[in-house]
């Protein structure tokens, strides 16, 4: 992306983030975003199909970049510290991302995450979990082993869905300054065979 296009995209994303933190993301219009960014509609459509697409794509890219280090999980099953999980740090990164954009994630006419924003979080969680499970098929309980393609997808979807649901409950009901508490609950409620505690 050339520097001019990057400046336009940054202005659009900044404006969309600001507006989405003030009202339901589904209520945003292209006119709202372009007016706030000082960018033409034609330029907007070079970057996104609609405001939800713009916000969701930007959030997804931001979270994926933050989690990139964990997509190649270390060979060990245990965390750096005894008694910690390999998922402690990626879970912290995940929760911190949600906390940083809490006002955007909270805004929904239905009182929960919009389907597109839920997909941002679910996709990121599934990517980390899939990478780990592919590296460590030996952690799969005997009752599930060996995982075929469908079982693998179901297992990852279940774990990712639980992570997202727990994070959403924290977003709605919890103390958003208590990152440690949120991480502790997500890890404590995950199936123990996933965690590789040392």
TrEMBL record:
Pfam families: TetR_N
Keyword annotations of the record: DNA-binding, Transcription, Transcription regulation
Gene3D superfamilies for this protein: Tetracycline Repressor, domain 2 (1.10.357.10)
Regions recorded as binding DNA: 29-48
Protein's recorded name: HTH tetR-type domain-containing protein
Domain of life: Bacteria
Organism: Herbiconiux moechotypicola
Domain HTH tetR-type as annotated: residue spans: 6-66
PROSITE patterns: HTH_TETR_2
Stored InterPro entries: Homeodomain-like_sf (IPR009057), HTH-type_TetR-like_transc_reg (IPR050109), HTH_TetR (IPR001647)
């Amino acid at each position: 992306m050339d520097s001019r296009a990057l400046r336009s995209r940054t202005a659009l994303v900044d404006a969309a983030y600001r507006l989405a933190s003030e009202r339901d993301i589904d209520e945003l219009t292209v006119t709202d975003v372009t007016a706030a960014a000082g960018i033409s509609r034609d330029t907007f459509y070079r970057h996104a199909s609609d405001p939800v697409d713009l916000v969701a794509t930007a959030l997804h890219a931001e979270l994926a970049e933050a989690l990139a280090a964990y997509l190649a999980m270390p060979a060990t099953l245990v965390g750096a510290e005894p008694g910690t999980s390999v998922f402690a740090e990626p879970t912290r990164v995940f929760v911190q991302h949600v906390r940083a954009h809490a006002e955007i994630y909270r805004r929904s006419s239905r009182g929960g995450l919009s389907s597109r924003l839920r997909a941002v979080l679910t996709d990121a969680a599934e990517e980390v979990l899939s990478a780990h499970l592919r590296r460590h098929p030996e952690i799969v309980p005997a009752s599930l082993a060996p995982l075929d393609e469908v079982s693998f997808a179901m297992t990852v979807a279940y774990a990712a869905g639980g992570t997202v649901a727990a994070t959403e409950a924290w977003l709605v009901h919890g103390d958003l300054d208590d990152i440690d508490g949120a991480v502790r609950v997500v890890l404590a409620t995950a199936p123990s065979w996933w965690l590789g505690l040392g």
